[in-house]
Amino acid sequence: DFHWLAFDTHEWNPVFVAKGKAPAARHGHTACQLGGRMIIFGGVGAKQKHYNDLHEFDFETQEWVATAVASKKTAGPRARTGHSAVIYGKRMYVF
After folding, report:
1. How far apart are CA 23 and CA 41, in angstroms?
2. If you ran DSSP here, which 8-state letter would residue 47 be given?
3. Which of 66, 62, 35 lies closest to 53, judged by CA?
4. Structure confidence by residue, pLDDT tens digits, 78-95
5. Using the 8-state DSSP alphabet, how is residue 79 labeled?
6. Are 28 and 44 in contact (CB under 8 A)?
7. What's the pLDDT tens digit per position in 44-66?
8. H or E element: which one contains 7?
9. Residue 64 and residue 18 in contact, taking contact as beta carbons nearer than 8 Å
10. Is the per-residue pLDDT at 12 higher than 90?
11. Strand pairing class (3-6; 11-14)
């Protein structure tokens, strides 16, 4: 499910995705806002599959984009659920 809440009317509305493929259903992930985008990371899905993937949703274009993340120093965070994340400046911190 992907919905938005209108604070003035207190009504929930479904999000209609114009382009891209939504990430696999999951819970326990983090979602952070960066400019006009929502960044989601990790979580756990069907059959207890744990994720370490990163997806972006662009609010203007209503498009999902799977983001490939490369690191020269490390393999990045392991798959996880129930974690915390925050964006500060141009960095996303995952704990």
Report:
1. 10
2. G
3. 66
4. 999 999 999 999 999 999
5. S
6. yes
7. 999 999 999 999 999 999 999 98
8. none
9. no
10. yes
11. antiparallel
